[in-house]
Amino acid sequence: MSNIVRRDPFAIDDMLDDLFKGYFVRPMRYSGETPEMQMIKMDVKEGDKDYTVHAELPGVGKDDIHVTIEGNSVAVSAEVKKTSEHKEGDKVLRSERYYGKVYRSFALGQEVDETGARAKFENGVLELVLPKKAATSARKLVIE
Question: Comparing C-alpha atoms, which of 70, 54, 57, 43 is closest to residue 101?
Fold first, then answer.
């Protein structure tokens, strides 16, 4: 015995289900693919006299990193160059390239003394030590 189901092709519920089916599914990545750098991951710590920033920049050369300090704003940018080539003998089976720039900026709670700032890049991690600018005391203005 078979069951017969009546379907209305103009039912709104069915149309919306068909429209959004698979919309929220994450795209799959093939094995062996390396994800491109999307965003710079950072840790910012505040001490009594300075700020310490650790930024992850894997696969980036030291010469391709640029740090800009302006008042209490800090900007880190890097140029990412990745190439991958798989050969079997003299035949190139697959060759992939990715070139791009990543950029991240943030504001600190106090202005930075640019003259005492230090940067070190080791094992894909950029470390910035940003000393706080000495706070100027408010001066009372005498009215003549």
Answer: 57
